[in-house]
Write a structure and sequence with these properties.
elongated; two-stranded antiparallel ribbon; 6 strands; Fic-like fold; Arc Repressor Mutant, subunit A; 2 domains; 57% helix; mainly alpha
Length: 371
């Protein structure tokens, strides 16, 4: 009796009950169209800022799903540099950050390009530039030659969730997978994205990085479904929120037969939630863009601009003159002059607390941009 989906004959002849996914697929397609229509009506700078925010979020969250936390400033700076969206970014960016950025941008910006074995190997090499995953040496830029088990739990108390396709069959299975992705079909592109994700992680062709590459492939197919390289929603962000359901849906499907209705249903609902939550994700982008549009003719020096942007980007604690002086590397007197200048211009306001507790906050009017 077959234990895993790939042990069934012709296992990739996937089937599903369309009546159980038709409604949510229709809702997803409607939300995609609405989002793209709204974003395309906005100006170039606002769209660019929104895209930069989403790509940064997508990379951060896809890595976080695997337990790896990347430096947000480095991720954002690397994306901006590669897309030509801003200058004056960080001078040093970790090779691991550069690699994951390179992979996702190739997947989403070159979404119409065929998938090839060499392209996949390039992504994998970019993810592991040192040839190691943590302390462990792994096979990089090629399919694994060893067997693969997906386990969890402490040493000695591991739980085996899944045993992947035997190594000797990986090459043949991947050839079939790549051919299917590149072949035009009547399958809806969103469904094709869902199937791509499941199919790839079921094969588990690499020593490590399979989850991140699967999500990059999924993003590539979603870009095809949108017909656009401009990304305004992050499914990885939503998957992280629904991580337990994500792994549960994968595990149940991989222990079943070729009927993948359960997986498609979960994927579509997760994508629907992604699109519904995009407004919240981009809210601060719109607030920031509206602010700078309003003050485009207001004289603001570089120190002031730096602090204002920091206040928009999850500033920790309250803004005081001593924090200003430390962050901008100026004297307390200069910091106070900068602050008072912004108060006069109606950009900052002083809160009620006085003395050493004196602190300041931005005066931000909400714009009515909504998705």
């Amino acid at each position: 009796m077959a234990k895993y989906i790939y042990q069934h004959e012709n296992w990739t002849n996937f089937t599903w009950d369309y009546s159980k996914i038709a409604v949510v697929l229709g809702e997803v397609r409607n939300l995609q169209g609405k989002l793209l229509g709204t974003m395309n009506a906005l100006g170039f700078s606002l769209k660019s800022e929104a895209m930069l925010e989403i790509l940064t979020l997508d990379i951060m969250k896809s890595s976080e799903i695997e337990g790896e936390k990347l430096n947000r400033k480095q991720v954002r700076s690397s994306i901006a540099k590669r897309l030509g969206l801003e200058t004056g970014g960080l001078e040093f960016i970790d090779r691991n950050v550069e690699g994951v950025v390179e992979m996702l941008l190739d997947a989403t910006q070159n979404y119409t390009a065929d998938l090839t074995e060499d392209r996949l190997f390039g992504w994998h090499s970019a993810l592991f530039p040192s040839g190691r995953s943590g302390m462990h040496i792994i096979e990089v830029g090629k399919y694994r030659t060893g067997e693969m088990q997906v386990v969890s739990g402490a040493m000695g108390k591991e739980k085996n969730h899944y045993e992947a396709v035997e190594a000797k069959y990986v090459k043949a299975e991947m050839d079939k997978f790549i051919s299917w992705i590149n072949k035009k079909s009547s399958i809806d592109s969103v469904l094709k994205s869902a199937i791509t994700h499941l199919w790839f992680v079921t094969i588990h062709p690499f020593d490590d990085g399979n989850g991140r590459i699967a999500r990059a492939l999924s993003d590539m197919l979603l870009a095809r479904s949108d017909g656009s390289s401009q990304r305004f929603y992050s499914m990885s962000n939503q998957i992280l929120k629904e991580r337990k359901k994500y792994y549960s849906a994968l595990e149940k499907t991989q222990h079943g037969d070729s009927d993948i209705t359960l997986w498609l249903n979960w994927f579509l609902k997760c994508l629907k939630n992604t699109l519904l939550n995009t407004d919240n994700v981009l809210k601060n982008v719109f607030r920031k863009a509206y602010f700078w549009e309003k003050h485009k003719n207001t004289p603001i020096n570089d120190r002031q601009r730096l602090i204002i942007n920091r206040l928009f980007d999850n500033f920790y604690g309250k803004l005081t003159s001593s924090k200003w002086a430390k962050m901008t590397k100026v004297s307390s007197d200069t910091a106070l002059r900068d602050i008072k200048d912004l108060i006069v211009k109606g950009i900052l306001k002083q809160n009620d607390a006085g003395g050493r507790s004196t602190n300041y906050e931005l005066i931000v009017e909400e714009d009515n941009t909504s998705i």
